[in-house]
Amino acid sequence: MSRMRTMEILVGAFMAGGFVALFFLAMKVSNLSAETIGEGYPLAARFDNVGSLKVRAPVTMAGVRIGRVQSIRFDKTRYEAVVTLNIGKQYNTIPIDTFASIYTQGLLGEQYIGLSPGGSEEFLHSGDELTHTQSALVLEQLIGQYMFKKAGEDAAK
Amino acid sequence: MLDSLARLGRSGLGALERLGRAHLMLAGILQGLPSLLVRPGLLVAQVYNVGVLSVLIVAVSGLFVGMVLALQGYYVLSQFGAEQSLGVMVAASLVRELGPVVTALLVAGRAGSALTAEIGLMKATEQLSGLEMMAVDPVKRILTPRFFGGLLSMPLLAAMFSAVGVLGGYFVGVGLLGVDDGVFWSQMQAKIDLHEDVYNGVIKSVVFGAAVTWIALFQGYDAVPTSEGVSRATTRTVVSGALAVLGLDFVLTALMFGD
Question: Shortest Cα distance from A100 to chain B (angstroms)?
Fold first, then answer.
């Protein structure tokens, strides 16, 4: 009977160790500890071009993450991308004239949405739409514009 | 000419028959689950055999794999000035691939071979027939607890492997190579996703655990009941278990991370 008991204790320790390891992977290694936003409310934003923005990309204000991109879909009547943002419900004082832009982290990093607050006294509510948006910068377009301009200057000389 | 054709046909039919027997055995094992829940003591003994006895080898391998990953990763990343990403690299490769795969290979070698030999010898010494004589279904009494013991132990062992490996990578990366402590963890937490990486790693290890224990049990249950047959079955467990794990890993990786 005591052998059975030792075995049970060892198995219990093993399972506890396994769950501690899983807990360590969840809390310390992965981003669960950063997921403090919890429940949120949706906001919509329309962009001409979302570049390579992905679902679950961060939404930041003043560089601090306040939400995530929930979904990206295409509006076939207006030929625009409709991005749904999930904003943490404690951030419920976003002015209605807030400006949403798609930025890139570093030179080649991932894309995210930055919100710059406007000056309005009225705040956005669940399901509202951000009207002022700026599309993603596509590197090829920038280079293309620069080359075009350069060629034009050279020809003018 | 006709003889060789007949031999080919016979081996093909034999392979199909084995596959069919393996699935019948699996169905029998799964049917034994309710009676196993009534006697959880049987499961505890098997979790001890497969899980507890494998902890040492899994933890030590994890530690060294993590340390080697950090050393090699640092060599490549420092050439691009991206040493800060060392933590991400170590954690992502451990959680996504090396944790589940290497643990499954170790379990196939350490516990799978033992299972096959045990059941093969039970068959050779006619203990299984003895159980049947006493109207005890050997599949439900012997195989079911072993199968679920393996299924339960694998994800826990794989999680231990990954966790110890990340710590090993931390010791080498931060302690030895001088990567910044905070950057190591913060980059890791920013890039490793709980759902995308950790959950998929756990799913992988559950699938590998099922595959390895199923193969081990079937090889033992289907072994030729002689000492030579048991030794061959043990070899086949390790070989086909390892191949199954690597093949399944490709399929699962393509499904999970392939887009």
Answer: 23
Chain center to CA of B227:
26
Q: CA A35, A38, A41, A42 torsion: positive or negative?
A: positive
**Average pLDDT over chain B, rounded to an integer:** 89
Is any Cβ of chain B less than 8 angstroms from the Cβ of A62? no
- The owner of tokens 């002689």 is B226
Q: Three-state DSSP class for A31? A: helix
- Identify all chain A residues contacting B82, using CB atoms and an 8 Å cutoff: none
- Asked whether A102 and A60 are in contact (CB, 8 A), the reply is no
Q: Is the pLDDT of residue B95 over 70?
A: yes
pTM value is 0.76
Distance, CA of B17 to chain centre: 25
Residue of B nearest to A109 (CA): B191
The beta-carbon neighbor of A8 closest among B44, B155, B194 is B44
Contact criterion met (CB < 8 Å) for A18 and B160: yes
Q: Cβ contacts (< 8 Å) between B190 and chain A: which residues?
A: 31, 34
Nearest by Cα to B160 from B51, B90, B62, B66: B62
- Enter the ipTM: 0.77
